[in-house]
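Can you give me the bound-state structure? Components:
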Amino acid sequence: MMATRVLFPLVVVDVALFCVDDGGLRVLLVKRALEPEQGRWALPGGVLKPDQDANLEAAARRVLRNKVSVDIPHLEEIRTFSGNERDSRGWSIAVLFCALLPRDQVQALIRDKVEAVEWADAAKPGHRLAFDHTEQLFTALRVLRDKVDRHALPLHLMPEKFTLTALQRTCEAILGRPLDKAVFRRRLKGSEDLVETDEFERGLQRPAQLYRAREGFAFMA
Amino acid sequence: MMATRVLFPLVVVDVALFCVDDGGLRVLLVKRALEPEQGRWALPGGVLKPDQDANLEAAARRVLRNKVSVDIPHLEEIRTFSGNERDSRGWSIAVLFCALLPRDQVQALIRDKVEAVEWADAAKPGHRLAFDHTEQLFTALRVLRDKVDRHALPLHLMPEKFTLTALQRTCEAILGRPLDKAVFRRRLKGSEDLVETDEFERGLQRPAQLYRAREGFAFMA
DNA sequence: AGAATAGTGTCTGTCAGACAGTATCGC
DNA sequence: GCGATACTGTCTGACAGACACTATTCT
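Here's the bound-state model for the whole set.
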């Protein structure tokens, strides 16, 4: 066992699954049912299974399919974490992925799960996480914020149709700071990724036009 | 052998080592001495050795130390390439790193090596590379260009002291297009990463002031 | 003086930030 | 009309691109 471990490192995939709910950016945590680090909160993850997974991204997709019964709209590799210290089982490689879940699929997800699951504040998870998952989480969060800072639109976090104000709230939740409405909308005018519909969201005030993502849109590129 | 390969994937690190020479961006290629893909040009790479390597970055550093007798100033992970198809030995993970070599260490490197080595045009390597290394190379090149486009200064490619014009030539080599001198220098005025010295490079014309990188400077962040 | 390279001044268009203003709904 | 939210107009400062200009060296 130790001998194979030295020649072949343990390879795991971990996923930082983000959503926006109640105006805050949340990340999915699971309570570990098995050793090592049993009982501690962690990012969902699992061991690579070369006989089942076409590649590492497919492995991350499988992990999420098992923990969560949703098709993940977007999944992207962030970076690796490796070495002898990060997992008590020995020399290991963790490949971190970032996933985005639309707002309208969040509630269903929580209800379906049996194991302990929590949508934690992404910036302040409130638990000491297992392994190096705190560092992993902050790394994923930094990458996500960088993208939005560079004007990438997190449309994978939105329902199919949404208002521009809702999109702005999502960006604000990711960045953790308010944005100017006029500036935000001026930028969106030139965006190829946004398509206007002829529908409106009717509420208690002036109706807001609904938009959707361009066909084939991908957030992280 | 096949059984272990299914449970434990082959893990390799590959390095895109860039330099600037003769006004062009070059990447180091080696001719593979062993199967698989013997005789084909490839990015320098090697199998991870958990008993020797503290982590994946250290593995990349070791690979370069063996192929090249230089201390690498900067090394950064780009992304992974994985699956059953990319290496004839079976299910594998390649972790790609990007490294930058100062201009004044290039000539020494070429002379010292016994095995077949070539500084190829980074944008047009001119060989069909082994494995998925052509895709790896273009991925690394794209990341490098993105950074410079976002005003990161590739000081790790420069000698200890350099003129602003030399730095501009390096950026132009990376981007593959000319830059405006006045625009380039105006941006540098506000840079914390650049320190002016009181020395000048005296040549055939008006002397140019020499600059150096700030202590503790890191290119990719 | 002239060639060559280092380094600067300036005009213009674009865009972000700030903020006030107008438009359109439900009541 | 009034409150609330959607949406727009405009001023200002920062900065990029383009390009002409000045400065300092060697021959």
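A couple of observations. Residues 180, 182-183, 186-187, 202-207 of chain B lie near DNA strand D (CB under 10 Å from a C1'). Chain B touches chain A at residues 4-9, 11, 48, 50-51, 54-56, 77, 79-80, 82-84, 90-91, 93, 95 (CB under 8 Å).
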